[in-house]
Amino acid sequence: MAKPKEFAPVKLICGVISGDGEGALYAEVRRRLEAEWGRVDGESPAFPFDLTDYYEAEMGPGLVRRFMSFADLVAPGSLPERKVQAIGIEEEMRRAAGAAGRPVNIDPGYLTASALVMATAKDFAHRVPLTQGIYAHLEFLFTRTGVRTLDWTYPDLRRGPAQTFFRAVRDVYLRQAAGR
After folding, report:
1. Which of 7, 6, 5, 14 is nearest to 110 (CA)?
2. pTM above the 0.90 mark?
3. Widest CA span of the chain, in angstroms?
4. Tens digits of per-residue pLDDT, 148-180?
5. Domains of the chain
């Protein structure tokens, strides 16, 4: 009888959408996440979040998204807890700003040798329920030659710069997973 194997540790990542790019909001999110999740070992430049207006009513125009990766590998089962923590940080920052809507959107996820997975609190047909009202959203697959997007891959993650960042993070992850 085959027994289930333990999941391999994964590379924790996080996306941050805000109107200030590399400003005070992003710096505060980074500070809080490092206090909770450990040292950031990679950061993307700020990418325009301009392929959808989904968050504009709540967060305003001119939004950008940045990604960061964390040095320590984690259990993939920790993703729902991290999303709940991120929602809490968003709410704390909203209250501190006295804003009606969120000033930042914080989306944790992880990558493996083969895929990028993000956490979301929004259900949809292709999302897998985890726990605590959190779903797993498979964003794309890594191939030998690059990235394979899926029908539901977020539009900004279809762009080359985001994929270049995640391919570089994957290279770091593969070295970490191999113990180098």
Report:
1. 14
2. yes
3. 57
4. 999 999 999 999 999 999 999 999 999 999 986
5. 10-177 (3.30.70)
